[in-house]
UniProtKB/TrEMBL annotation:
Organism from which the protein derives: Phenylobacterium koreense
InterPro entries: Amidohydrolase, Bact_exopeptidase_dim_dom, Peptidase_M20, Peptidase_M20/M20A_hydrolases, Peptidase_M20_dimer
NCBIfam families: amidohydrolases
Annotated protein name in UniProt: Aminobenzoyl-glutamate utilization protein B
Transmembrane segments: none
Keyword set, alphabetical order: Hydrolase, Signal
Signal sequence residues: 1-23
Residue stretches making up the Peptidase M20 dimerisation domain: 219-298
Organism superkingdom: Bacteria
Length: 540
């Protein structure tokens, strides 16, 4: 796929060539009325939001293996008139779902991640560790919720566009393998977002908010290094062997010595994914997987080049050979100011959900049971929209960064999770199929729907967003892709893990035809009255 779906281009929806007649401004009162209708349209689909949230939670699929999730979401969209294209950008679980009304008008792309976390299986609504399937993956970040946010918002706005004859195109897509930061760069490279006007991205959080400018965190490149040597009997004739594991260990020693001489803001980590077969055989192959994180494109590339040099040096020292491939990449994030300001105005109108006393008690119990430093429960005050700090802090990465350097982009976070939890952990799955998540999804969906109305009806917003993108964000720094034209997604990752656990997980897939909620299917009573872990319980 080299650009947006053919249906988009056939309609002539190129943002740079839209006819002047299409750039009409809507009166403020009309926009306010449309936004009220958008909120009502979301609220009327609260049941769908809950079902989608719970259904995807029950799948719990890992990166690149989001088969059931993609099949389910695209099925919902096709049933509602969207044209689906599957397998985009070489991603078997990648897709786009497109719907167009009229001719011309802006192209809005809506995205959210869909993959889970290893060993994060957790029964929702239980405030301590209670896996659905021991050792299995689960939604230990909350990626089960974002597609519900976007689909419900898109359907509400689709109704408005038809009833009010508003021209435009909606394109939904999934963040495949975000936990490996291994999907979006391929979608960018293959032109999935070409000719789109804006990208509205959603991500689970514990408040309702957005931001603009360079964010805290890092970009990264994820690299797999493989060394090849020669096997031999480890005791009988070790001199005839050339240990690939020695090369891996030397590379790791070299990198760890080099850390002192790298910027303090860098973050780098590795795991040895293949250390040999058994101790009495000199390992003929060995593999180590690195994440090199930095805050700038130049910093990422520099550390990647240092890593490559380390690998070559380790190979020379052990008389082995070294090769490597990129498994994933994420650009540093930079979000659009005019879009963020428009979204924040809508956030202020929607406000945080009204949490019940039982929901607050549950959240505080989870925080206590996990040993959180603060046990204040769910957020009751909105975060402010603040200017980016002069020196952003280091930290995690997200491949939405690649899209943010491709077209005007923002991320809206919504309060479906409990604050002050570890992240990437089974504990972050506890709330994700409970009324806490259901309320947070609806709140986020209202904000996205209202912001879509802004984009559709306010040509000045689209112009300002593009001006910021061209004249501020990318004035001196352009997008620097880390993958080349011949790189391919590592779609084999996690296939063995899912093959091992999916049969057990399948028995627990949510059945909305029989149960109103996933909690009811699992026999978890809500509100939860037993908030104290069993005697002798320890957090793992």
């Amino acid at each position: 796929m080299k650009n947006l779906p053919a249906a988009v281009l056939a309609a002539g929806l190129l943002c740079s060539a839209a006819p002047a007649a299409l750039a009409q401004s809507y009166p403020a009162a009309k926009i306010a009325s449309l936004k009220s209708s958008a909120q009502a349209g979301v609220e009327s689909r609260a049941k769908l939001a809950q079902q989608m949230n719970d259904q995807i939670f029950s799948y719990g699929e890992l990166a690149f293996q989001e088969v059931e999730t993609s099949k389910y979401v695209t099925g919902v969209l096709e049933a509602n008139g969207f044209k689906v294209e599957r397998g985009v950008a070489g991603l078997p679980t990648g897709w786009t779902a497109t719907w167009t009304h009229g001719s011309g008008g802006p192209v809005i792309v809506l995205g959210s991640d869909i993959d889970g976390i290893p060993k994060a299986s957790q029964k929702p609504g239980v405030p301590w560790h209670d896996p659905l399937v021991a050792g299995a993956p689960g939604h230990g970040e909350g990626h089960n919720s974002g597609q519900a946010v976007n689909v419900v918002a898109a359907l509400a706005v689709k109704d408005l566009m038809e009833k009010n004859d508003i021209a435009g195109t909606l394109v939904l897509w999934p963040g495949v393998a975000e936990e490996l930061v291994a999907g979006k760069a391929y979608m960018v490279r293959d032109g999935v977002f070409k000719n789109a006007d804006v990208a509205l991205f959603t991500h689970v959080g514990s408040n309702l908010g957005t931001g603009w400018g360079a964010t805290s965190g890092t970009g990264l490149v994820s690299v797999e290094y493989t060394f090849k040597g020669a096997a031999a009997h480890s005791a009988g004739s070790p001199w005839r062997g050339r240990s690939a594991l020695d090369a891996v260990e030397l590379m790791n020693m070299g990198w760890n010595m080099r850390r002192e001489h790298l910027r303090p803001e860098q973050r780098s980590h590795y795991v040895i994914t293949d250390g040999g077969d058994q101790p009495n055989v000199v390992p003929s192959t060995a593999t180590v997987w690195y994440y090199f994180r930095e805050q700038t494109f130049d910093g990422i590339r520099k550390n990647y080049e240092i890593g490559n040099a380390m690998a070559e040096g380790a190979a020379k020292m052990t008389d082995t050979t070294a090769s490597w491939r990129i498994l994933g990449t994420a650009a540093p994030r930079h979000f659009n100011r005019p879009l963020a300001e428009a979204a924040k105005a809508n956030i202020d109108k929607v406000g945080l959900p009204k949490w019940t006393a039982d929901e607050q008690a549950f959240a505080k119990a989870v925080q206590k049971n996990l040993g959180s430093a603060t046990q204040k429960g769910l957020a009751t005050e909105l975060d402010k929209l603040e200017a980016p700090v002069e020196k952003p802090a280091s930290g995690g990465s997200d491949d939405i960064g690649d899209i943010s350097w491709t077209l005007p982009t923002i991320t809206v976070v919504y309060p479906a999770n409990i604050p002050d939890l570890p992240g990437h952990h089974w504990a972050n799955a506890i709330s994700m199929a409970t009324p806490i998540a259901h309320k947070g999804v609806v709140a986020g969906s209202k904000v996205i729907a209202m912001t879509m109305v802004d984009v559709l009806t306010e040509p000045a917003l689209r112009k300002n967003a593009k001006d910021y993108f061209v004249n501020v964000q990318t004035k001196t720094q352009k997008y620097v892709p880390m993958i080349g034209p011949n790189d391919k997604p590592a779609i084999e990752i996690n296939s063995e893990v899912m093959a091992r656990y999916r049969p057990q997980m399948r028995e627990l897939y949510y059945d909305p035809a029989r149960y109103p909620t996933y909690l009811e299917q699992l026999g978890v009573k809500w509100p939860v009255t037993d908030l104290t872990p069993p005697a002798g319980y320890k957090v793992d």
